[in-house]
Amino acid sequence: MVELRKRPEPPSAASQPPLKKSGSSTSAKPRSESSKAPTPSVDRAEESRKPAVGDTIQLEGFGGEIETQDGERTNLKKLVDDSQSGVVLFTYPKASTPGCTTQACLFRDEFSPLTATGYSIFGLSSDSPKSNTTFKTKQRLPFTLLCDSNATLIAAIGMRKSPKGIVRGVFVVSKASKVEAVEPGGPAATVEAVRRLVKSARASSSERVTNVVDARETPKDENSKAGNASLAGDDSAEVRADTAAEVADTAEKLDEA
Predict the structure, then answer these.
(1) Which residues, including other chains, have CB under 8 Å from residue 115's CB and lie 6 or more apart?
(2) What is the mean pLDDT of residues 45-72?
């Protein structure tokens, strides 16, 4: 006797795995590439806008608004306008960390000589006002700490790290809006960059003073020479007068004889 086996029913449509759409894998790849493309292009654009030493920058709107550790809104133009000779911005990644503490304390310890020629010094990071207030108070920092939460000014001076973060460094701009230093570096290197600028400024100032003194002394010398010439002329006139008198006396004596 033959046993009849029941043929298994085909799986229902609901249980069948969905079919892959043709071209779905190829279309996903371009989307993935396009999503990654903006990152390097933004970095290249920021790099091309990075100011260089010798550039004169437009301070109006440069780097956007920032705030002090006390929450006061300000911007780079106002800081430069309020300074005597220019502004020093030293950037640091995070307040109260070892490297940033070393950097801030180096600027603190040399604050007087570094500001002797009129520079105003500021620390710049993306830390909150609260974090920077604690940092400033604990380390007894004599300068204002600037809070750039969106890193707009940090990016404008070329100190933003991709994709996010801050490069330790120093940026100096003069009263005339001229970039005098843009240098990434360690704590000591950032202080040394400002020290070189101060030394150069002092040398230039000394040279200007010397030139002014020389310019003031020159007319005196010329007047002195003129006075000597006048005296010499007077002496010569007296000699001529005496000679003429002697000649007249001699002639008179000859006539009497």
Answers:
(1) 121
(2) 89
